[in-house]
Specification:
Elements lengths: L15 H21 L10 E2 L9 E5 L5 E3 L2 E3 L4 H8 L7 E6 L5 H13 L3 E4 L2 E2 L1
Parallel strand pairs: 1-7, 2-5, 5-6
Antiparallel strand pairs: 2-3, 3-4
Amino acid sequence: MNLRSRNKVSADFSMSSMTDIVFLLLIFFMLTSPVITPEALDLILPKAKGKTTTQQNIAVSITKDLQFYVNEERVSASALEKTLKSKLVGEENPTIILRAEEGVPIEKAVNVMDIANRNSYKIVLAVKPE
């Protein structure tokens, strides 16, 4: 009487499916990594210790040349408050991330803080972690 099993278990392991999964993950992370970076402007921020925040409604950047940017859009200093009001209308907790490059006079940063104070916006000063 023949008692051997007809179904044989193969000891081979195919790596093709694992390679496909790794390749798809690589593509996913390559495509989503530019989306994660919040800064479009190349600013050298001052260094400080502190915690970071993930909540961001709008970013105001001030360059060394005293140019103002709301997100990536360049605006004049006189039109800054009007632009912020129009972009933050209807927000529940309006928050401004202030990115002032090293060497910017403190008066320019205080002007943005004053605009936020007058309109009851929360403002966070962005720094480079030490």
